[in-house]
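Question (not urgent): is this output format expected?
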Amino acid sequence: MSDFFRKHSMITGTLLLTAAGFAVRILGFFYRIFLSRTIGAEGLGLYNLVHPLYGICFALCAGSIQTAISRCIAANLSRRKLFLRTGLMISLSIAVILAMILSAGSQFLADQILLESRCGEFLRLMALSIPFSAIHACVNGYYYGMQRTRVPAASQITEQLIRMGVVFLLVLFFQAEQIPITTELAVLGHLAGEAGSCFYAALTFLIFDHTVSSLCLPLTSPIVLSTLCAGRELMSMALPLMGNRLVLNLLSSAEAIWIPSRLVLSGLTSREAFELYGVLTGMALPFIFFPSAITNSMAVILLPAVAGAQADGREHHIREAVLTSLRYSLYMGILCIGVFTCFGDFLGNIVFHESSAGYFMKVLAWLCPFLYLATTTGSILNGLGKTSAVFLQNTAALSLRLAFVFFGIPRFGIHGCLWGMLASELFLSAMHLYTLKGLVSFSIQPWDMILKPTLYLLISVGICRYALPSVSWFHRFPAFFTVLIQIFLLPSCYIGLLALSHFSRQRTAALNS
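Got this back:
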């Protein structure tokens, strides 16, 4: 068994990141529940409104460079320290400049861009976290490139624990001192989490991957020349990704800004618009994105794995990675449709005491298969060097969503936004698959990937919703616990049926051989 996991680094890396992702999301649920009851739905809406500007800064100084470091190291392990050192120099320089700009222009951006003056003080605090994010991203890119996911996984959990701990302590302090609790509390938690995860990742590298001397070398001509060459390699990949993420974050920022203002045009007050936006982005969407811990982890591992396979000419490994990602993305997405359509109302009412959150979950459940497909196939395309295609397709998908927001919300209310999300993810996953089909020879197996899991889902729903309630002892539990049992039993039945089918197919193949 240990030999199997050593040989399948993509599986072990995905499992480790998935475990960390689930741990972070579980902690995040408790954190968001706490925030929703501390700063309210309107406070969550304001907090989510400032994040797109932070996302733009992160795209420029960290996210794209992290991906470039990961891919360059995967293709050339002997130069890994050089790529990390060069990436850190570039990323941190850009981060400091962006932090200064965001801090100096915070009130202008709040008034003129976000159209909400209360966000000015939040942006000033957000600016302080940008350099920490840059360092953290570069170190994570170093470990992703070597397919050593323990440090990135641990840093995710560290970040969430620090964020939650700081916010809980601040609430206790504010209550004791009778200080009003506002959205600033959540922003302070964000800053603390970014700083803590940065120090954890940096210290781990310095302790276990030699010392600071591996990054700080004398400025001799050969070292300067090698750094310039490494910088050219990194930026040749990072710049298209940077443009990609910048445009995407600009479009996402426009969406975040437009949704509350377009909701006002649909007939809501400003407070009602921010509350509804907070319910959607702070309550419903975290549930929808919760299972993406698996596909996001798979995507992070797929990029360097596919890049390394392409560099070595191992086409069959790329084909296997594509088929694996398609199969499990569809398995996950079909399961989530069943869970959220059956139990969305219960989750919204019990967890957040907000019925509209449950309604949003039931509608958005249908985007799960397309959302997970787009995540994994987009990562594979980036690993194959098709960053321009990914950029254009993401831009087109977000533009489609913006059209729904701008034209649909004033006429149809929040439904215009929900329909836009569904349409854009369907379009994006279809375009990614079309492009991937032209690069890698593979075939989608409708029975194995779509029809069979759909059948197993229907059987599982029948067992949980209809067969189980007919058992006499089931109704001895309180209603709350009976629904929880059904929620946990549905995916258990579904996964069990898929596992039985897989083992049966393997046994048949072994007998035939």
